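Blackboard transcription, Thursday session:
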Amino acid sequence: MGRFVLKRLIYMVITLWLIATITFFLMHNLPGSPLQNEEKLPPELKEIILKEYGLDKPLPVQYVNYLGNLITGDLGNSYKYDGRKVTDMIMDGFSASATLGVQAISFGVVVGLILGCVAALRRGTWIDSGATVLSVLGVSIPSFVLGALLSYYVGVELQWLPPALWEGWEYTILPSLALSFLVIAQIARYVRTEMLEVLGQDYIKTAKAKGLGRPAVIIRHALRNALIPAITIMAPLTVALLTGTLVIEQIFAIPGMGYMFVDSIQTNDFTAIMGVTMFYSFLLVVSIFIVDILYGIIDPRIRLTGAKE
Amino acid sequence: MSVTKQKVEKILEVNHVKKHFKMGRNQVVKAVDNISFDVYKGETLGLVGESGCGKSTIGRTIIRLYDTTDGEIRFKGESTRNLKGKDLKKFNREMQMIFQDPYASLNPRMTVADIIAEGLDIHGLAQGEERRQKVTELLKTVGLNEEHADRFPHEFSGGQRQRIGIARALAVDPEFIIADEPISALDVSIQAQVVNLMKKLQREKGLTYLFIAHDLSMVKYISDRIGVMYLGNLVELADSQELYDHPLHPYTEALLSAVPIPDPDVEKERERIILKGDVPSPINPPSGCRFRTRCPKVMDICAKETPKWQEVKPMHWVACHLYQEESLKKEEGNKNK
Amino acid sequence: MAMNTDQLSPELFQPAEREQGAEEAVSRKRLSYWQDVRRRFVSNKGAMIGLLLIVIIGVMSLVGPLMNDFTYSDQNTDMMNISPFEKIEGDYWLGTDHLGRDLWTRIWYGAGISLLIAIIAASLDLVVGVTYGAISGYMGGKVDDWMQRLVEVLVGVPQLVVIILLLIWLEPGIFAIALALALTGWVNMSRIVRAQMLKLKSQEYVLAARTLGANTRRMLTKHMIPNVMGPVIITLMFTIPNAIFFEAFLGFIGLGLRPPQASLGVLLNDGYQMLQLYPYQCLLPATVLSLLMFSFNLLGDGLRDALDPKLRQ
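(Written on the board underneath:)
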């Protein structure tokens, strides 16, 4: 197990390094980038700016400094918003994005689980068909479309919930809902498949033969085993969620990281773009790492041999 | 058919062959660990043992699906180690294999005709009309119909698929066929069909078989001689009847005692030898004699020294300290201390 | 049929004549593997619906813009923001957008562009992914080890982030977007191909071909690749909606095609600005987008079931 963790850790570091390097070189090669050295400014001003951003040093040195700063968590200063540290900007947005994400996942997982179980248990009935249709819809309708629709119809037309902004608890409902749809769809589908397979297994028949009541059978045996493979989809799901927050924040005007990211793209704030990219990647890589570890804990084969099937 | 050494030539010689597989960092599976035996032209040598004893591995190593880790294999007098080019092609035609799983041994995308004729195609032995005729002939030989040639494997039953596999092996006119558990996946009545077919083919074409299986009674039916394997080693080798009448190795005795005899009176009197414990892992086999952890006749020396593979009676080999004079003497010596 | 015992004669108890070879007759109609697959696929209603929708949308993307006189970039300041329900002269069947451009034409044209991008991306993805995965899986050993290490690193790289970075660098265009999508997505395909290769390598019919003396070319063309196609096609069916989604998303955040180019993403973005006043401008492309993705998903599921019923989800 230790070897397994170590291996994943090393890969994580290499991946992050790779992204950092790509980001660095891309940003330095973009036309119009302040890091490009082509500003038509009076020389003294240029000197100051260059010094401020550390651009007066040779490229390799800049690169090393960049990496060094990354490790300490210093993402530099925003290019557009003078004096603001990128790290601060990200942290400001992080709480909103995190709330959104956590709510979406919790709600999504719970509802998805229930839906999947019920669909499996009531196979062939309208509940099952309904759940299946819902799943396919959830996977097909992009979250931003759903978000836009929810915002407009529930928020503006019906006025049941606020359609945008982030000023109180009610404001989080619609966006989290829109985001969770994908989660519900994926999990319900997966749980349903796994439950169906598990329910057909011999050990379930054994449990029933032993006289175990139906709910007990379901909870104790079926669910536990059906859940285990569901962890495997947590990784791609996390990815999808991170993607989704980018858009949802746009639609609902939520001042989160995604909003900041899009904003920095549109205003050509290069240091911010780099910073957010690194942060997003970091989040993603760490979540995948956590899921891998969780999976390793649960799957004894990995624990014992250190290898992944 | 009982064999005398001088009159019949050896078609296959396996000398001190080892086949080890590396698993992960520091673990090596010693699937086959120092095996030696010969196969004579025209005979059927049966190889039996539990799952995991290495019998499939040795079969695949002989036919060069794997390369030996150590040791030498000679086919018709020539070493098979570095065969290349034309020699390798000749080898592929002279030695063929029948596989275990009828559902996995045929390419589901190919027609039966193409499957059977694959050998012909590869070696350029027949084209066009001639090819079709050969395929028809082969189908008839294994008891199938001409019209089956254009069908696909999934349309056939297990027994029929095995027969297609046999036809495929026969297409190149081999002299030596390794049958790797060819009937283990079939129903009992079909097993008899397939085995009888194999016997018939042997008679008609003068084939030599290496018949690998785990069912002792079926092996006895078809084999002239039988070798018993345990955890990568050969423990006994003798003529079939001799093995049944006078088993030497304790493992052989245990295996034989488990084979039911269709005579209720005899069965009533028989005592089953039940081995204690489980088969040890081939990654870390026991020191000395590998069978010692389960042997009802184990002695102290069994843990210290590996028994030698010796011909203790004419054409009857065994690897067991019970039949090694020096071992017995040592054991006596230890007891008297 | 009741018979008296005296009517029973020894002749009746002779073994009946068995037709030679009758026991070996195969009763089913002869079906090749692919015909069998097609039969299963066609009987799956969902899959057929998906296929039908895709064909319809595909055809419309080519034919639709030609059906009236407007092109996708014609602007008409007199005719801005007309809803499809307004009775007005001219063929504005689906209304117009904020610059007076006909939506019918733009939507179908945009769908076509989105599909084009997705198909280019999927093709590139296919070529790179299949080659990489096949080599890695077939060669095995050290080659496989090193190739897989690269894959492990790439897997951790977030697809969206790199796509965005690439597009900032490359300037969005049809090919640029497709390239960015393929560059970040090929890893998935290569993994599937490699897994299948590894599985095939130890299949007995592959071993049989080796014992018969088949050379590498024959092994690959006759045994390995035909049996890899199944999962590859299925993966492809899911790569396409993925590409469509990403393209739409990029358009939505402003990294899509530049005006007056239209793709579903661009249309969504344009329409979104007007959502409160003229919702149809956003809803119509959203519907088409959702239908497309929905259909490909149905198609993919149907193919998966048809190709290997044992994998039934």
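Lecturer's comment: Chain A has one domain: 88-308.
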